[in-house]
Design goal:
six-stranded antiparallel β-sheet, 1 helix, 6 strands
Length: about 110
């Protein structure tokens, strides 16, 4: 699984040499794992403990990876509350179901 060091289309530099930034969108959190979409490209399942304690489905996270000498890296994951408030231009709004439009029951083929 490639993640923090991905050099894909969604890869962004965030500062000094060795600093990398990503955007994670939390798709779902369940039973100790979280499905996150990285940079609008791939979906990965990661351990829940890698996310902030108050992260929830639908949150947008800013991820910064800072490489240091000696093979170490520091990963910072922050919730971007402002991004959650904005509707995504990439995803169209879900169609609303009209009340009473589904009669229920079996489907006849």
């Amino acid at each position: 699984m490639r993640m923090a060091g991905d050099e894909g289309a969604g890869h962004r530099r965030t500062g000094g040499t060795g600093d990398r930034g990503h955007r994670w969108a939390v798709d779902r959190i369940e039973e100790g794992t979280a499905a996150i979409e990285q940079d609008g490209d791939h979906v990965y399942e990661i351990p829940r403990y890698l996310l902030p304690a108050d992260a929830r489905d639908g949150d947008v996270l800013t991820v910064t990876v800072s490489a240091a000498a000696g093979g170490e890296a520091t990963i910072s994951v922050r919730i971007d509350r402002a991004a959650r408030e904005k509707p995504s231009a990439a995803k169209p709004p879900r169609a609303k179901r009209r009340p009473g439009s589904d009669p229920g029951g079996d489907i006849v083929l």
